[in-house]
Design a protein that fits this description.
Elements: E1 10-12, H1 19-47, H2 72-85, E2 90-93, H3 99-111, H4 114-128, E3 132-134, E4 136-137, E5 153-154, E6 157-158, E7 163-168, E8 175-185, E9 191-199, E10 203-210, E11 227-228, E12 236-238, H5 253-274, E13 277-281, H6 295-302, E14 316-320, H7 326-344, H8 361-366, H9 369-402, E15 411-414, H10 423-436, H11 441-448, H12 454-472, H13 477-486, H14 492-497
Parallel strand pairs: 1-7
Antiparallel strand pairs: 2-15, 3-6, 3-12, 4-5, 7-8, 8-9, 9-10, 10-11, 13-14
Helix pairs in contact: 2-4, 2-9, 5-7, 10-11, 11-12, 12-13
Length: 498
């Protein structure tokens, strides 16, 4: 399964949903889903090191068959995902009146460790081209006080091998259904059936099948289902890596396979050189000498032998071997890995630490980080769209269980990268923005990208300078004016509001 071309999107033309139509849609979608699932499993195995070179068979000299896995796929995923989601995603408020509620939302996301889930989500995206998140109400939230600060929701990550979203075939391609399933196991860990959990915009359905048949029937629906949910949307959200659901190393699979073969054959060449065959030309070795030893045994012991020609032709002893030109092989390996870096956007290590006087943006461009930034920005667009779908459901849960009135249009996901890069330039830009006199300090810090929590940073800074001003004495107008000047656009009364 070398030639992969992304994951297939599953569509349906059915818009009238009932139990019977849902069963037909799911059964029809399973063939396409299982095709995606097999390819995802292959890419997952490739990422963890289960690559085709391990199954290679040699016809000639089968005793020399080294199988070297140079796992560039792991390196590509690690670098791409680490750069894209290395810092937690934070939410900023587009409306000053919503800042407090958005800060509560950020704290709730921290409490459910969404950042770790985002990293897992990003890994699935990078490996197989798509990923899925479930938004559900936390058990026990209905019995908790509405003033409680605990998160009333959970945001687990689903295995894309067992999950799919089915979209409408109409022009807008809106989600119609989503399903995820798991095996039902007996006491010995053997699969005896499957449990399907299916969502539409109004109901949750659970079907259980028995045996090896993966097709569901209306009679497999569990008692008391379907159950209504109040979320108003399908709570399984797809996070595609790109439009074609391609993984980050999927486009260079054949090159990666070639690199594995090349490095394995280079090791084979060295081993074959060490194990070369010794050939005796125009001479015969005595099987037994007066001392009872053969000529070959003497050669092994003394590493020297006297030979004579038995046919009147010149006698010779030589090794027969064929070895790879290592310089040419290294050039080929470097060419292949250059193609990999160029196609995936990963910075090339050979261009780093070359010395010279270039700094800042010059180094950023020279070392290939600008290419990786292009990759991250593309990922961010698709990730941001899915985040907004998630926030739509989260806001509804917060309204019902915590009486927090938030609208997705007031929330902006912020992706923090290169926080300390060009810090001097960022500080100068922030200073210029402050001098304009009409930009909120929180917005200045947000634009500067030096913190994932600009509200808290500004609050602590303003409180610090207020305390410093009080220590100098309220009668010292000069110190007070300097303190107010350092606080930027806020006065002391405005600080107390914060």
């Amino acid at each position: 399964m070398r030639n992969l071309f992304g994951r297939k999107v599953i569509y349906t033309s059915c818009s009238d949903l009932s139990i019977n139509s849902i069963v037909k849609i799911i059964n029809g979608a399973m063939l396409r889903h299982e095709e995606n699932s097999r390819r995802i499993a292959y890419l997952e195995g490739y990422f963890t090191g289960k690559q085709p070179i391990l199954d290679r068979n040699k016809v000639i000299r089968q005793d020399v068959n080294n199988k070297i896995v140079v796992n560039n796929a792991y390196s590509i995923v690690r670098n791409a995902n680490g750069y894209f989601l290395g810092e937690p995603i934070k939410y900023a408020s587009k409306d000053a009146e919503c800042r407090e509620n958005v800060e509560i939302l950020n704290n709730m996301m921290d409490s459910v460790d969404k950042a770790c889930g985002d990293t897992q989500l990003g890994e699935w995206q990078s490996i197989c081209g798509t990923a899925y998140r479930l938004i559900c109400v936390d058990e026990g939230s209905e019995n908790k006080d509405k003033d409680s600060e605990s998160a009333p929701f959970e945001v687990p990550i689903l295995d894309p091998k067992c999950t799919s979203v089915i979209y409408s075939s109409e022009v807008e391609h809106k989600p119609v259904l989503a399903f995820t399933y798991c095996d039902i196991l007996d006491d010995n860990g053997n699969s005896i059936g499957r449990k399907y959990t299916i969502y539409d915009k109004t109901y949750q359905y659970i079907f259980e099948t028995r045996g090896v048949n993966t097709q569901i029937k209306t009679g497999d629906l569990l008692q008391d289902y379907p159950k209504p949910h109040f979320l108003g949307d399908i709570p399984i959200i797809e996070y595609p890596n790109n439009q074609w659901r391609l993984g980050d190393f999927e486009t260079v699979l054949t090159i990666l396979d070639g690199l594995n073969k090349l490095q394995s054959d280079r090791i084979n060449s060295v081993e074959q050189l060490v194990n070369s065959i010794l050939v005796f030309v125009n001479c015969e070795l005595k099987d037994k000498n007066p001392d009872g030893k053969s000529d070959l045994e003497k050669l092994k012991e003394q590493l020297a032998i006297s030979i004579t020609s038995s046919t009147g032709q010149p006698a010779d002893i030589k090794f027969v071997n064929s070895q790879v030109n290592q310089n040419e092989a290294e050039t080929l390996a470097e060419t292949l890995i250059d193609y990999v870096y160029a196609m995936t956007g990963i910075p090339d290590r050979k261009t780093r630490s070359n010395g010279g006087g270039d700094t800042g943006e010059a180094v950023y461009l020279r070392d290939g980080w600008a290419s990786l930034e292009v990759v991250a920005r593309t990922k961010e667009r698709y990730f941001r769209r899915s985040e907004k779908q998630m926030l739509k459901i989260i806001c509804k849960i917060l309204k019902v269980f915590r009486n927090i009135d938030l609208k997705p249009m007031h929330i902006e996901p912020t992706f923090v990268r290169n926080r300390t890069n060009n810090l001097l330039n960022k500080a100068q830009a922030m200073s210029i923005l402050k001098e304009l006199g009409f930009i909120d300090p929180i917005d200045i810090v947000t634009l500067g990208g030096i913190s994932d929590n600009p509200i808290d940073l500004v609050k602590r800074g303003l409180a610090y300078y207020q305390d410093k001003g009080q220590e100098k004495g309220d009668g010292n107008n000069q110190v007070r004016n300097k303190s107010d000047e350092k606080m930027g656009n806020f006065t002391r009364n405005e600080v107390s509001v914060l």
